[in-house]
Design brief:
The protein has helices spanning 2-20, 25-47, 52-74, 79-85, 92-103, 107-138. By secondary structure, the chain is mainly alpha-helical. The protein is globular, with a radius of gyration of 17 Å.
Amino acid sequence: MNIVFHFIMCFCATFCFCFIMNVPKKALFCASFFAGIGFVVYDMIKLTGIGEFVSIFVGTAVIALAGEIFARILKMPSSVFVFPGVVAFVPGVGIYRTMLALIQSDFEKFQRVGTDTIIIALSMAMAIAVINVFSRYVFPKKKN
């Protein structure tokens, strides 16, 4: 039940964010659907106890892979699908808590939360980069 709720909420949030980013209408459903799928994958891996960083990496990789595939199918840039899809993983609360700890001079919390936030952001960036390089290797540009 909780996973279904998370899928629906992630789908709705991504769908609304797609409007902010002016995503083409034919890509709205795909971007939102695979954002929900990526979040479900994140939830399922996190439930196994492997860790949040690995969960975010795999969830982002699923979204990036789906984005690369649908970019080829619908003949659009992959960023149309990937960037709205990973919004649910962006560590906004972590950035806020990091800055709050700095302002409150709680340097131990600043270091701990800041490190976690940076690792989450880096795992997202690494997943997108790995899938992008992989897709360029699998689907090379055609030479005329």
